[in-house]
């Protein structure tokens, strides 16, 4: 496992490897392959980076089941928020985010609430986030 301040290795494998090419549970590097990869190119279950190909991806260029980024390639139009794991079961409608404010307003009416709120560049139904304190 990498420690804070460790220099990246060229090739690292492990629980939290830090390297140019990192493979493992929480890999961090230029090319990261694993469960929660974070890097320039991320391949895995939950990828965060510049280019992601994974189940749940957040980054600039994202291809996956639940993709959220500047450019996305995903089977759905909605981003599943607060899923655990996100793709294994559908999220409640109140926890879905949409690219259009109009669609989020329509979903809010269907849910019996009013208004919408922003979630990054996406829109969620209801004026308040579910579970937020008044």
Radius of gyration: 17 Å
Amino- and carboxy-terminal Cα gap? 41 Å
Tally the structural domains.
2
| Spatial order of strands in the largest sheet | 1-2-3-4
DSSP, total strands: 8
Strand content: over 45%
**Global shape:** elongated
Instruction: Round the mean pLDDT to the nearest integer and report it.
Output: 75
H/E element sequence:
EEEEEEHEE
The biggest beta sheet is recorded as: 4 strands, parallel
Number of helices: 1
Uncertain runs: 77-91
Please give the share of residues in helix. under 10%
Structural class: mainly beta
Please, could you describe this protein's structure?
This protein has one helix at 101-111; strands at residues 9-14, 18-24, 28-34, 38-73, 79-80, 96-97, 116-119, 122-125. Helices cover 8% and strands 51% of the residues. The chain is mostly beta strands and 134 residues long. The model is unreliable at 77-91 (pLDDT under 50). The protein is built from one helix and eight strands, in the order ββββββαββ. It starts with 8 loop residues before the first strand and ends in a 9-residue tail after the last strand. The protein has two domains: 1-76; 78-134, no CATH class.
Topology:
Layout lengths: L8 E6 L3 E7 L3 E7 L3 E36 L5 E2 L15 E2 L3 H11 L4 E4 L2 E4 L9
Parallel strand pairs: 1-2, 2-3, 3-4
Antiparallel strand pairs: 5-6, 7-8
Task: Report a brief summary of the structure.
The protein is mainly β. 8% of the residues lie in helices and 51% in strands. The chain has a four-stranded parallel β-sheet, with no helix packed on it. It has a two-stranded antiparallel ribbon with strand order 5-6. Strands 7-8 form a two-stranded antiparallel ribbon.
């Amino acid at each position: 496992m990498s420690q804070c301040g460790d220099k990246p290795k060229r090739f690292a494998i492990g629980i939290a490897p830090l390297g140019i090419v990192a493979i493992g549970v929480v890999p961090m590097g230029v090319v990261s392959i694993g469960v929660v990869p974070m890097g320039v190119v991320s391949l895995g279950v939950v990828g965060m980076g510049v280019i992601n190909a994974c189940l749940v991806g957040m980054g600039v260029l994202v291809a996956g089941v639940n993709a959220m980024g500047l450019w996305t390639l995903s089977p759905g139009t909605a981003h599943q928020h607060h899923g655990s794991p996100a793709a294994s079961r559908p999220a409640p409608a109140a926890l879905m985010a949409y690219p259009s404010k109009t669609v989020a307003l329509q979903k809010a009416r269907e849910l019996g609430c009013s208004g919408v709120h922003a979630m990054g560049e996406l829109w969620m139904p209801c004026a308040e986030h579910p579970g937020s304190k008044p």
